[in-house]
Amino acid sequence: MPVTTERAVEGFNTDRKEKTELVAEVPRRVAPEPARLIDRHCCSLFSGSTFTGEQKSGRSSYDVTVEIQHVDMKNSFLCGYLSIKGLTDDWPDLCTFFEGEIIGPKYSFLTRKWDADEDIDVQHWTRFPEFKKFEHDFNRDGFSYDFESNDFIFMRWKEHFLVPDHRIKAISGASFAGFYYIAYQKSTGTITGLYFDRDLLNDATFLFSLGQHHNSEWFQHLSLKHVPSTSFPAFEFR
Amino acid sequence: MVQPLSPTAVSKHEAAVAGLDALDLQERTRAVRFIKNNVIGNRTKKEMYLSMGVAARLVEFLFAEDCDVDLRVQVAVVLGSFAYGNDHNIKVLVDAGAITPLLGTLDAPEMKLVEAGARALKAIFQSAEAPHEDVFQASYVESLIRLLTPTTETVGTCSSDRAVPVRVTEVAAGILAKVAVTHDNQMQIARSGAIPLLANVLDARWNASPKVQEAALDALANLCRDNPTISQKVVCCQIYDSAISPIPTIIKLVRDRRPVMRLLAATCLTNIYRAGALPTVYHQDTILTLMPTLIKLFTETAPISTLYGSGWATVQEKAPKVFADLVESSEELQKAALEADAVTKLAAVVIGESAATTVPESNELKAKSRKDAKRRGNKAPPAPAIRVSSCGHAERVTEGFLRAIAAICSLREECRKQVIDAKLLPHIVNAMSHPNRRIRSAACECTRSLSRSVKNLRTSLVDAGVAIPLFKLLSDESDDVQLTASATLCNIVLDFSPMKKTVLENGGVERLVDLAKSMDDRLRLNAVWALKNLLFQADSDTKTRVMQELQWDGLLSLIDDAETGIQEQALNLLRNLACGKEVDIEQVFEGLGEERVLDILEAKLTKSASHDDIVLQALYVIVNVATGNQRHKSAIMNRESILLSVWGFMSHSKSSIRVATIWCIINLTWTDDVGSQERVARLRALGFEPRLQNMMEDLNMDVKDRVKTALTNFGSLIPGSASPGSQDNAPAVPMEIAGSAAGSTVGSAVGIANAGPGPTGGGNGNRSRRGMRGAERDRERLGDFTGASSVVFGSLSDATAPNQDA
Fold first, then answer.
1. Is A139 in the B-facing interface, judged by CB distances under 8 Å?
2. Which of A52, A59, A104, A53 is nearest to A77 (CA)?
3. Is residue A197 part of a domain?
4. Contact across the interface for B329 and A37, Cβ inside 8 Å
5. pLDDT at A30
6. What is the rounded CA–CA span in Å between residue B714 and residue B669?
7. Are B497 and B486 in contact (CB under 8 A)?
């Protein structure tokens, strides 16, 4: 329901009788002040929090830093920057902007986009042991994951463009066409992620059939840990 | 096109004016009739007569004893004709004192005089500038309300016993719709009993008189606007004592055949919904009916009435504004609007509007529009006292649609994306420099909605170049425009916005500090909000620069502002200033003075204890200051009243406030900080420890986790009881992740846990790390509890990780 300001209801929200209403001074109608946009965050997922760790890709690993820019649990949404060091020679520091869909009442485990079908979803989600208890239910009608009361929050992170220059569309030797399946554990402040990209998967399957690739190397995975902070600035959209 | 009047014609009119002064009643009546026949529908002659000064004389006739009813009726008709659709003429009539005597006719025994008087009043009140206060004097409101009960007979047969023809009810309702401007107006009209009578005419038995139903809906809509009490009254009243709420009837009228009826019923329902008075049982129906109806009306060009303010209006002008009112504060409705394809429909009109030179409108309206333009071209600007809003139909359409766009994307990222994808942004940016201030303001409101997104701030808004046009609007001649521009700037100066730099380079800080000293509360709020956002994660240079401009005294007066909303923002600004490095805290202590900082915090936590928003910010100032050096920590410790306030807020109903209190304690008690033992002892003496223990089972997970950290600092938490599964502590530590992210800290974290309780718990394992930053220390401590409950991702490729079932 729309929020009304105190002033708008002042003077008649009380037991005062009509007589006092007559003298109550309300100069003009006061339009309701739009709702505040105060972030609702969750444990170490808050606007400005940082996670560090690495991304493993086959036998290589790269340092990764994730800076959460904005968290809006109410809308099952967050976004931030993901920086990878040393992925390509041309871009020793590659930073992308990503948006996260939080699995819950708004987004289901089924991706239904970004080239991911149900098989792909199951294949990836089941790699998270915490998901196993939902494996048989997640596709049931009316199922909605409760991220509020569970220790784990599942997400999909989709990178959209480069930071700082969003106009650069392609980088040789790197791609952000796919997306990450993410599991975040509140109690430990850890994030694990699995990267999926249909084209990469096709290549990997091909190599696997030639015996040049180990099964597990299909998955480029991300392991991050929250960098705790003890002081907290704050902003709010207006 | 009008021919110039010939000299002979003029003398004829002079004769008529002279006739008004005749002693003979019949001669006077003849003169008034002559004038009436000449002025109806003739704008030039209306102006001619008014310039000959007839208004005052005619007004006299309304209450002169020697005038009969017939003459008064004629006079009222003439006055009504003068007023019809012309703000300037209305001003002349108002100055001639026409309103009160016309109100006097409403109680006349003769219905034809009542009708003529009411019509004249309705014409006058069409002008937003006409003073409506007189209606609320004496018992004029009651007189109007007596006209709201129509009888079925016609005026001809029943004029003597004051039977009210339904067309008079229509006029009376129309007047009430126009004069319910302030909250007091609304309440007075409602108290006089208008609501059930207006609801009665919505009944099906009046379906043959759609005009009266439209007028009643218009009146109800305006009475309900931003008024929860009256909205409630409407919901609860009964049409003809039928025990049925009027809401289903109004919903039915939203589906009426007539577009104007649909619009007015939709407006009424929207205002009741906005006031929070619409019962939930009707929500589904409302969404299903209202949303598609309003969206279809976006292209409906039917005129709303033949007169409206300075000209005329169409449904198309109004529908997007009602739509905006409906969806602006509801995410649910914004989603419904998106699904109903509203953005595409809005975009089609806005983009069509600016692409085509001709406005999509009916031929009749085009003709009117041409006439309007001619008129404006030939005439001197209107008298300043009544400022005719000179924006024409096309501009009102543009404004309405921009308002709708701003509303639909104010809360949901998907809606913002649609607006961007519909390529509306270039039009919005253009409109930000439109000569019409209402369009500038509406366009700026769109930018504001779109700027509530990190993605847009990094991409489309930069590409569209909004920073500079927006910055110019901060100094706009219109207060409304300054207001939306300053609100938008709050988002533009955020850390992740590349436009922050542009604003800073163009004197943004200086301008914002100017605005922070404005007399207007709303501007001051926006300015301090923007400065606060600017200082989010800011470096010391930016902090210094803002404080050089704002001055510490300036900040202080904002912290003590009369408006609590401004106090909250100013405290948040202080919180951001004190966040980060020790030098940042030192700067705050030096700038405000140590005692003053503490005085502020003490005052806010006691005198403003009931304002949660203020308390939260004050607590976080403490949290941030408590990360400083020993002197900073001691300053807080030495103010017992502050500590006791913190103690009190630990049982606050809001978890966000409880978390903040725990962080205050955590930051004061890190065990390897100088003086921590004394601080722990002092807090223990004040009873913090049992209080924390009581919070171990807090329902909020975040609170619970922080409480554990705090109790560890007190050395009172028994390791192993921290969380289920932590008994088999050692193997469960997420080796791989911790190994790369936290280096060797895992080992010492276990060390702390095993060090057991005691005032110096963990000290040994840590001595060598005294110089560590707080963040790293915290990580170690958190490792005690958090590492235990297994991050199972130790190795992805190995499905049989040992900690899987921990």
1. no
2. A104
3. yes
4. no
5. 53
6. 7
7. no
Chain A contact for B276, CB < 8 A? yes
Contacts of residue B225 in chain A, CB cutoff 8 Å? Answer: 29
Residues A12 and A122 in one domain: no
Q: What is the DSSP letter of A51?
A: E
Q: Is the pLDDT higher at B249 or at B779?
A: B249
Q: Is B329 on the interface with A (CB under 8 A)?
A: yes
Identify whether A9 is part of a domain: yes
Asked if pLDDT for residue B487 goes beyond 50, the answer is: yes
Does residue A146 share a domain with residue A75?
A: yes
Q: What is the pTM of this model?
A: 0.81
- C-alpha B18/C-alpha B31 separation (Å) is 8
B782 closest CB neighbour out of A128, A161, A189 = A189
**Domain range B593-718, its CATH number among 3.30.450.20, 1.25.10.10, 1.10.1040.20, 3.40.50.2300:** 1.25.10.10
Q: pLDDT tens digits for B138-180?
A: 899 999 999 999 986 444 444 445 789 999 999 999 999 999 9
- Count structural domains, chain A: 2
Same domain, yes or no: A132 and A181? yes
Among candidates B226, B412, B667 on the partner chain, residue whose Cβ is nearest the Cβ of A230: B667
Strands A220-227 and A190-196: antiparallel
Reduce the DSSP state of residue A100 to 3 states and report it: strand
| Nearest in space to B572 (alpha carbons), one of B510, B526, B620 | B620
Cβ of residue B536 closer than 8 Å to a chain A Cβ:
yes
Pair A96, A18 in one domain = no
pLDDT for position B378: 43
Residue from the list B181, B498, B666 with its beta carbon closest to the beta carbon of A164: B498
pLDDT at position A31: 58
CA distances from B159 to A49, B122, B155 (A): 78, 21, 5
B654, B700 in Cβ contact below 8 A? no
Note whether A135 and A199 are same-domain residues.
yes
Which one of B533, B782, B793 has the shortest CB-CB distance to A192?
A: B793
Q: Which of B141, B183, B286, B668 to mutate to test the interface with A (most CBs of A within 10 A)?
A: B183
Boundaries of domain holding A136: 50-236
B737 touches chain A (CB under 8 A): yes
Per-residue pLDDT of B282-322, as tens digits, reads 999 888 999 999 999 999 988 886 444 445 688 999 999 99
Answer yes or no: is A41 within a domain.
no
Dihedrals phi, psi of A46, to nearest 5 degrees: -145, 160
Whole-angstrom Cα distance, residue B348 to residue B339?
16
Tokens of B554: 């300036």
* Predicted confidence (pLDDT) per residue in B656-698, tens digit: 999 999 999 999 999 989 999 999 999 999 999 999 999 999 9
Instruction: Select the residue from B137, B184, B664 to test the A interface by mutation, using most A Cβ atoms within 10 A.
Output: B184
Residue A40 in domain: no
Shortest Cα–Cα distance, A97 to chain B (Å):
8
Query: Using the 8-state DSSP alphabet, how is residue B304 labeled?
Result: E
The yes-or-no verdict on residue B486 having pLDDT over 50 is: yes
- What span, in angstroms and rounded, lies between the C-alpha atoms of B55 and B88? 13
On whether both A54 and A26 belong to a single domain, the answer is no
**Residue of chain B whose alpha carbon sits nearest to that of A126:** B799
Q: Mutation test of the interface with chain B: which of A33, A78, A223, A229, choosing the one with the most B Cβ atoms within 10 A?
A: A223
* For A152, nearest residue in chain B (alpha carbons): B791
- Do A225 and A185 share a structural domain? yes
Q: Tell whether B331 is within 8 A of chain A (Cβ).
A: yes
How large a percentage of chain B has pLDDT more than 90? 70
Both A15 and A109 in one domain: the answer is no
Kindly list the domain boundaries of chain B, sorted by start residue.
593-718
